[in-house]
Amino acid sequence: MKKLQSGSFCLLFLCFFFSVSIHAQALEKPWVGRTYVVQQYGVQNHNFVRQADIALRKFDFEEAFFALENAVAQNPNSPEVLMRRAVFRRTFGMEREALQDLRLVNRQNPYLADLLGYNGPQGRWSLLDEPVDLASLQLSKLDVLDDYYRLWDRHYSDHQIAKREMERLDQALRWVEELEFDTALQELNQLLDEFPSSGLAYDLKGMIYTRLGQLEEASDALAKAVVYEPEFAIAWYNYGRVEELREQWEQAQLYYDRAVQLQEDLVQAQFDRAGLLRKQGGYQAALDDYSRILQRSEGQHTAALLQRGVTKRQLGDFGGALVDYNQAIAAHPDQAELLQSRGNLNLVFGFYHHAIQDYTEALRLTPDFASSLYNRGLAHFLIFDPVSACVDLQASADLGHERAALKYTYFCGE
To answer: Higher confidence at residue 245 or residue 297?
Structure first.
């Protein structure tokens, strides 16, 4: 009897599927532009979609299927419902039917597929504002000046550098500290007239040219620096950074490696090497570098924490990434940007209420934080709260946030 009931249900399911398939084919016409308006969705649609979500969590795929079909039947022009059905259909191998839904959705709202996860985590990341440019978080480029002073003092104590050369280098470095780069270059050129094999002077010139964006001149100067001072780790690091900026990845990697070999505690070289490794897909090696930095700093290097968290995120390690984000926030609880970054992590991995909580806390610290309002608005859509979502998007747009104004027209327009 049980087998008979199961067979009857399968037959009913197939008949219903074919009828839906025929209806979907009828919709596949060469539409031009939008043929219907963007609208907010009724309570009944949300109830059906919620039923589908609950059924999916219970692995009751049949109930989820019928709940989504009911939602679409009630309002066939609802892009959100169509998009959720497209995700369901693709998950269960109905690629052709999923694409039919997707075409209809994209004519109304080209951002919905990314928001609802159809295009994977990267699709969602592309929609969100990341307030902190995690790829650029690093030590100030002038922080390495302390290393210069230590090295020069050691050279002078070991009688490896003349007093006159030391005085001129010291003066040039002070001009650099005051951001008087032209004056510093003049000082260094005069120094090189007197000491033409001064590798330290060439290195400092290379660093200045890099700050000025003159990469060819920087590369030429640093090539001479490492010839005259082959054991100077900072020169190799500077050379690697310039080659990375010139997109000479292989050379940059070699020079970063050499810098770390010469000076294991040169944090900036390890940090930039890890970033370069990530660009080339070497995520595990990058993780190792970030971990070494954190070990030396006893976990207090916030930039390394965040970068390691981003790397773990790229590897799909949500738990590991969250641990690093939490530690960074614990060290800097007043940084709204860090809370928003964690909110983005939570949103992308499906923890929508946690994401909203992070954005709300960021807004408590910085009430006019347009990016957090914008991201929170998107998160509200994911928990079936279009009213709150549109309020946030409007508030963000009123603060001049262009992405929020654009999304409002698609998600909240009538």
So the answer is: 245
- The whole-number pLDDT of residue 361 equals 96
Token pair of 360 as six digits: 């709300």
Residue 155's pLDDT is what? 60
Listing DSSP states for 141-202 in one string gives TTTTHHHHHHHHHHHHHTT-S-HHHHHHHHHHHHHHHTT-HHHHHHHHHHHHHH-TT-HHHH
Which stretches of 79-144 are DSSP H helices?
A: 79-91, 95-108, 112-115, 120-127
350: left (phi over 0), alpha (psi -120 to 50) or beta: left
Q: What single letter denotes the amino acid at residue 304?
A: A
Cβ neighbours, 10 Å, residue 74? 15
Provide CB contacts within 8 A for 265, sequence distance 6+: 296
Residue burial 132-151, b: 16+ Cβ < 10 Å; e: rest:
bebeebbeeeeebbebbeeb
| Global confidence as pTM | 0.69
